[in-house]
Amino acid sequence: FTMGGSPAVQARELPNRRVTISKPFYISAFPVTRGLWSTLRPDTFPGKECEGLAAELPAVHLSWIDVTEFCAALS
């Protein structure tokens, strides 16, 4: 596929470049919600940040280390 913006919104999107994904990988069909994240890491979104409709919001502002641990736990 061609990676980059057209038109570019940020400078890092240029230059457009051809990318080939050479190894298989897994990807979720749905975003990881705060509710799902909290089942494995309840300390991340405390209290009202993960109650009711807030539990359906995407889990954001997570570190790469947190995400790799989460993926390992799901596996």
Strands, helices and their partners?
Blueprint: E1 2-3, E2 17-18, H1 34-40, H2 64-74
Antiparallel strand pairs: 1-2
Structural descriptors:
75 residues; mainly alpha; two-stranded antiparallel sheet; 2 helices; 2 strands; elongated
Question: Can you characterise this structure?
Answer:
- By secondary structure, this protein is mainly α.
- The mean pLDDT is about 90.
- The protein contains two helices and two strands.
- A two-stranded antiparallel sheet has the order 1-2.
- About 25% of the residues lie in helices and about 5% in strands.
Gist?
The chain is mainly alpha-helical. It has helices at 34-40, 64-74; strands at residues 2-3, 17-18. Helix content is 24%, strand content 5%.
Shape category = elongated
Specify the helix fraction band: 10-25%
Q: Into which percentage range does the β-strand content fall?
A: 5-15%
What is the H/E order?
EEHH
Main beta sheet: strand number and arrangement? 2 strands, antiparallel
Whole-number radius of gyration?
A: 17 Å
Mean pLDDT: 88
Low-confidence stretches: none
**Order of strands side by side in the largest beta sheet?**
1-2
Number of helices: 2
Structural class: mainly alpha
Beta-strand segment tally? 2
Termini gap: 28 Å
Quaternary organisation of the protein chains? single chain
